[in-house]
């Protein structure tokens, strides 16, 4: 049988403060069979960081070239450094049958959707907006104005939910992980992914 | 918050001999939160069978009336008795938030698809056609001709896979159950099912 199932690109995103990093870390701890995407960055390597393991380290010029050549699924600049997702790494992993997970901000997810619409877009949502406020407030001793403006951003990010395939409520980290694992397993059972396998089966059948 | 999530109608079907009944029984044993549909039948109650629990017992006339009034999602006749799935029972359960599972033959599933396209159609598939043949042969001491004709039917039933949403391989019963549970959980996370909930949330928000 010559059917080889491809992997999935899973994009996990959601409003700031919802707990994307925590959920991703929990998935890793569980040993969920997901390959973590490696970002390209113009940031200098820190001690112990290995090129191609922690990041793909690039010069500004190389990074700029990747953007121009469409080699990045998405990219953004934070405090003077650029970060992006190399499309080749993602495509090669998927062709090899690996499910790749990408944990990014909502703006990045929209960029991915334009370039890779066949990805699986999962929106991590807070159980309610009060809870999100608690989490934003809980982060430190920000002023009321700053909290207010962060809530405004978070609410506008919530509006982007409709661009996603799935919504996973992050009421409890373990439950959120269960849902993400279920979504990935279910997507592998979708008829359009598997029908080729059974067509191959019928072709090879000698009964 | 006035959002109430509806249940799903899960239709589990697949070729004869694939093990639909075994998988359904295993789901019950596991305690998977699924409500089993109750069939209407013209068959006489056997000892211990309770109307509205094991079956809805109907006269021929009542059953015919249900067909004419579109009260059956699907129906079929076996050895002189009619069996069908009452649409009201299914709809009421779903409205109450229960996930209902229906284990039926492929012809019945096609009938349900016409009347209830929003249901979730899961095709239980054999790991390969040889395995299906083993199972069909293993049932008894049928003649080669009968086995051949059953295989013909099974193959034609395999062609109907494309009408389904998901394909679950029944390589191992427990694995098949895992996949079915994942599909149901994932479907509850689909954005089109949940977006209303978050619209309600935003409407109620006073932050």
Automatic annotation (TrEMBL), chains A, B:
Q: Recorded E.C. number(s)? A: 2.7.4.8
Q: What CDD domains does the database record attribute to this sequence?
A: GMPK (cd00071)
Keyword flag ATP-binding: yes
Q: Which Pfam families match?
A: Guanylate_kin
Question: What keywords tag this UniProt record?
Answer: ATP-binding, Cytoplasm, Kinase, Nucleotide-binding, Transferase
Give all residue intervals belonging to the Guanylate kinase-like domain: 7-185
What Gene Ontology molecular-function terms does this entry list?
GMP kinase activity
Location relative to the cell: Cytoplasm
What is this enzyme's catalytic activity, as reactions?
GMP + ATP = GDP + ADP
Q: Per its UniProt record, what InterPro entries does this chain match?
A: GK/Ca_channel_bsu, Guanylate_kin-like_dom, Guanylate_kinase, Guanylate_kinase_CS, P-loop_NTPase
Enzyme class, broadest EC rank: transferase
Carries keyword ATP-binding? yes
Q: Where does ATP bind?
A: 14-21
**What does this protein do, in the record's words?**
Essential for recycling GMP and indirectly, cGMP.
User: What family is reported?
Assistant: Belongs to the guanylate kinase family.
Q: Which PANTHER family match?
A: GUANYLATE KINASE, GUANYLATE KINASE-RELATED
What name does this protein carry?
Guanylate kinase
The organism of origin for this protein:
Sporolactobacillus mangiferae
């Amino acid at each position: 049988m010559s059917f080889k199932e491809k992997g999935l690109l899973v994009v996990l995103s959601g409003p700031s403060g919802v707990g994307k990093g925590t959920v991703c870390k929990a998935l890793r701890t569980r040993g969920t069979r997901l390959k973590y995407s490696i970002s390209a960055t113009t940031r200098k390597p820190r001690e112990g960081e290995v090129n191609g393991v922690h990041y793909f380290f690039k010069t500004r010029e190389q990074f700029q070239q990747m953007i121009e050549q469409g080699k990045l699924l998405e990219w953004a600049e934070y405090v003077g450094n650029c970060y992006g997702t190399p499309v080749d790494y993602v495509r090669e992993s998927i062709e090899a049958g690996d499910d790749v997970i990408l944990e990014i901000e909502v703006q990045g997810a929209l960029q991915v959707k334009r370039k890779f619409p066949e990805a699986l877009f999962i929106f991590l949502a807070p159980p309610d907006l009060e809870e999100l406020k608690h989490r934003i407030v809980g982060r430190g001793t920000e002023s009321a104005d700053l909290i207010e403006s962060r809530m405004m951003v978070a609410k506008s990010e919530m509006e982007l939910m409709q661009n996603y395939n799935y919504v996973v409520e992050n009421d409890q980290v373990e439950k959120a992980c269960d849902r993400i694992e279920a979504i990935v397993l279910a997507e592998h059972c979708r008829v359009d992914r598997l029908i080729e396998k059974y067509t191959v089966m019928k072709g090879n059948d000698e009964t």
